[in-house]
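Shipment paperwork, digital attachment
Item: protein structure file
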Amino acid sequence: MSTSTGTGWAQLRQQTRSLETQTDTLFHTYSRFASNQNIPPKPTEEEQKTEDQIQDLLERRQTLISQLSRLLDSESVLTASALKQNNLSRHREILHEHQQTLSRLRSAIHDSRAKANLLSSVRSDIDAYRSQQHPETAEAEYMLDERARLDRSHGVADSVLSQAYAVNEQFGIQRETLGNINRRIVGAASQVPGINTLIGRIGAKKRRDGLILGGFIAFCMLMLLYFM
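Attachment content:
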């Protein structure tokens, strides 16, 4: 009897954990409807299906927890371990948390949809009011809106130009700084005894190496032309 009870407990717990994982996955999908900025006026088929699936999983988990509780009560005091009691309590806590999460997300979606519908209704009323106005008034409002958009565009352009001027000014300061550093290095080098002679020798050696290399290349080209 104890072995049969243990096997039944393990199977029920495995099913409960599996349903808890499925519930977490569906909550991830369902939460996206609550954070949707362009929520539709009515629940979509996917939204309603996800909510129904979560509700069904919660009910199935409640049934499994009841079965676990009855199975644990049927055991004797000696065989009923504290670990099983803790496992059962934890499953109940998770179920309660998920029930609260569903209620919270459902309320958030309802509030977002009500707010979106209210804004849509207000916009419709404003559009209807404007359509009933005189054409001259509507045209004047249109021109004012266009003027506001142009002013915003000009403000953006002025900001970009200001940043460009600031960057150009920074480049000028950096060029001037580098020029001063170069002049200081050249001035300091000219004051070191023999530095100019050393620099001249290095330049002469480079020119001599260039002439030798050029002569060698010319000789190779002549030999190549000769044997062709």
